[in-house]
C-alpha cells in the first residue's frame, strides 16, 4: 500500500537520503524515527527501506534486511524499496538476487539512471554480457550526450565480439565529441589529447581483434600524429606490419624501437622476424654486431649473439662477455647465461673458460697472462661464485660446495655467498643445512627483507613454521599477530608454504585453513574489480579495462591457487579415506608411535598451541570486526563503486578437519582447475581420485582420457589407467546396458583388449 507523505514529512525523508549520502548516519536515523514514530506513517515503505540502508552501513545487517523486507511488504510497487533491497543484497555479494531486485525497481521506474548504472555494473561483474549490452543501450538512449554512455555501449558490443558495431559506436563518439573540440586551458588540453589518443588505440584494438589487421594498421597510421603514447604506437604498428608480411616497414619500426631501448628483447625478436632470419643462422650474429656498433652500451645484443653460434665462434664471443661481467662484479652473470645450459657443448665451453680464468687469476692476478692490467680482487671471488652455481645447476653438489666454500674463505663477510650455499643445500634436499646457511646470511643484515623472507621460506620447507613466523613478525605491523597480518596482506607465498608444511606434518585442519584463506583472497581479488568498472571508463583506460576483465576470467589458473587447491584436495581425500570424528581422534592418530617422553612433550606443545590459537582467534575476530565496520562505513548509497569485504566467518582447524562432505569440498577446489588448468596432468589425476571415491565411472573415464592426452607417459597416469581397467573389467557387466556397451567401446579406443 502506497502512503504519500505530507510536505513536512517528505522534507524529513529527503533529509534522510542526504544524511545517508554524506554518511551522517546518526542524523539519518533520528529523522527516520521522527517519521516512523507517527502512527499514520509507521509503515511508510521508503522510510523503512532508507532506515534499513543506514543500519546496513553501520553493520547491523539482520535489522537492515528485516526493515527493507517490511518496506517491500508494505509497498511492492516501490522502486526505492527494490533498489535498496538490491543494495543490501549486493553488500552480501548475492549478485543474482541484486539483478532481480534492480530489474523489479526498473519496472516501476524504467528511466532511473542510477539504478540502470548499478544494474550494468553488476551485470558486467557477473559477466552477463547480453544483459550488460541491453542496459548500456538503455543508458545510451536516455543520456546520449554523456561520454560514459557511448564508451560503455561500445565496450558491451566489444565483449560480445560484435566488433563492427563496437567500432562504429567508438567512431561516432570520436566524430561527435572530439573532432572540433579544443580546450582552452593547458591541463585540460593535455587530458583531451591523452583521452583522444587512448580512444584511437582502443579502436585499433577492436579492428585487430575482428581480424581486419589491414584496417587496424591503416587506422594507426592515419592517427599517428594524434596518438601520444609513441612507444605503444610503434610496438602496435610493428606487430601489424609483421602480421601483414610488410617486412620492410616492420624492419624500420623495430629499428626505431631499438633506438629507444636497445635492451628490450622483444624488439630484437621483431627485427629478426622482419628480416626473415631463421634461428641457427650466422645472419643473426651479423645483425647483433651491427647493433653493437651503433649502441656500444647495449649489452643485450652481445648476449643474444651467444645463442646463435656454436663451437669456436661461441667461445670467441663468450670470453670477452664473461670477462667484462666478472670485471664489473655482475652477480647475475649465471642467471644471464643459464638459458644457454640447454646445449651441453656450450656448458662444457663455459666450464672450461671459467676454470681457465680462475687459474690465470690465481697464478698471475690477471685474466690472461699477457694482459697488462691486473684483474680486480673481486673478480676471483665472483668466478668462484659462478662455478658454485654452475655445478649446482649440473647437480654436482660436492663440487658446488667446494667452490662456494673457497669463495667464503676468500670473503667471509659477503652474505650473497651464504645465500648461494643455502640454495645448493636446498636443491640437494637438505633443508636443515639450507636453513643454517640462510640464517648466517640473515645475521649479516637483519634488516634485509629478501633474506629474511628466504630464510623463513626455507624454514617452512623444513617444517619450522613457528620459527619462520617469528622471523617474518619483524616486518609485520607492530602489535599484530604475524600470521594474521600476513594473511591480511594476502601474502600468498607464505600461506602456500605454510599449508604445505602443515600437510607434511599431518596437521590437516591447519593446512585446510591456509588453503581456504588463499581461496578467500582470490575471491577478494575478483570482487576488487568492482571498483574499476566505472573508474576505467571515466579515466579512458579502455584497453587496460578489457585486459583486466580477461585476466580476472582466468585468475584461478594462477600457480598460487593451483598449489593451494592441490593441497586442499589431497587433504580432503585423506580425510575421506581416514575420517577423524574429533580432534582427539586426530591426536590419537598422530601419537600412536610416540614414546612416553615424546608424548608428554607433544601434549605440552599442543596445550601451548591451543592457547595461542585462542588468542589468535580473538585477535582475528577483533581485526575482522574493525575491518568490516570500516568497509561498511565506506559504502555509498547509489554510486555502486563500493567494495564489500569478503566473508569473515572464522576458520577453525578443529572444525575443518571433521568436514562431513570432504569430497564435495574437494570438487569445489577442483572445478576452476578443470576449466583453467586443463593442460596440467595433476588436475586430471586429482579428478580421477575424487570421482573414483564417488564411484562415477563416466567421470573417471573422462579424467583418464584427459590425463592420457596431456601426458600419456606419466607413471601415475599409467598406474591409474591400469587400476581403472582392472576395476571396469569387474564392474562393466553390472552397469546398465547402454552404459556398459559405451564403456566397452571407450576402453577399446584407449587400447584395451
Automatic annotation (TrEMBL):
Tell me the Pfam families matching this sequence.
Answer: NatA_aux_su, TPR_8
Q: Does the keyword ATP-binding apply?
A: no
Which residue ranges contain the repeat TPR? 79-112, 231-264
Q: Where is composition skewed (Basic residues) in this entry?
A: 602-611
**UniProt cross-references to PROSITE patterns, sorted A to Z:** TPR (PS50005)
> Which stretches does the entry tag as region Disordered?
586-654
InterPro entries membership: NatA_aux_su (IPR021183), TPR-like_helical_dom_sf (IPR011990), TPR_rpt (IPR019734)
Question: Which keywords, in A-to-Z order, does the entry hold?
Answer: Repeat, TPR repeat
Q: This chain belongs to which protein, by name? A: N-alpha-acetyltransferase 15, NatA auxiliary subunit
